[in-house]
Design goal:
Oligomer: single chain
Strand content: 25-35%
Radius of gyration: 20 Å
Largest sheet: 5 strands, antiparallel
Strand order of the largest sheet: 2-1-5-4-3
Number of strands: 5
Helix content: 40-55%
Low-confidence stretches: none
Mean pLDDT: 91
Length: 153
């Protein structure tokens, strides 16, 4: 297996400005100030089932990519962000093309050009496995409490 020095590896990564955008497990989108998809990475395609071409140019709140509750939250947070109000990361429930639900933590950052907001760079971290494990732990905890209740009676 070839071994690369740190400077060689850095050169490889710097040669492709989209390296980190495309080679991450997180879903990443770039939105313009009207909420239209400008760019989406391949992870977005994988988790939603939609091709990039089907998303680019469409407004996120006009599509069925989120549950109604999450769409309302995202729209509110998007409008607040466009007004300059920064919010911490938050959770959303997404819908795939086939209707499957998955959970994500959404973190948005401004894309600035000449001191003006040109759009948002949004990273969506998949929380589905963590949510599944949390649910299993909750059930196990409830079962344990029931068992302890029986033992103490």
């Amino acid at each position: 297996m070839p071994s690369f020095s740190a400077s060689e590896l850095e050169k490889i990564v710097r040669q492709d400005p989209l390296f980190f955008f495309e080679n991450t497990l997180d879903a990443i989108v770039v939105l313009d100030t009207d909420g239209r998809f400008v760019m989406v990475n391949s992870t977005v395609e994988r988790v939603t089932g939609y091709k990039k071409e089907a998303l680019v140019g469409k407004r996120f709140f006009d599509m069925d990519l989120l549950t109604l509750k999450s769409k309302a939250i995202c729209t509110e947070k998007f409008l607040a962000r466009m007004a300059g109000i920064i919010s911490p990361p938050f959770e959303v429930e997404a819908l795939s093309k086939t209707g499957d639900k998955s959970f994500f933590e959404l973190n948005a950052n401004d894309v600035m050009q000449d001191g003006k907001r040109a759009g948002l760079y949004v990273v969506l971290r998949d929380l589905s496995e963590r949510k599944k494990i949390e649910g299993e732990l909750k059930k196990a905890n409830q079962k344990l409490k029931q068992m302890l209740g029986v033992l103490t009676q």
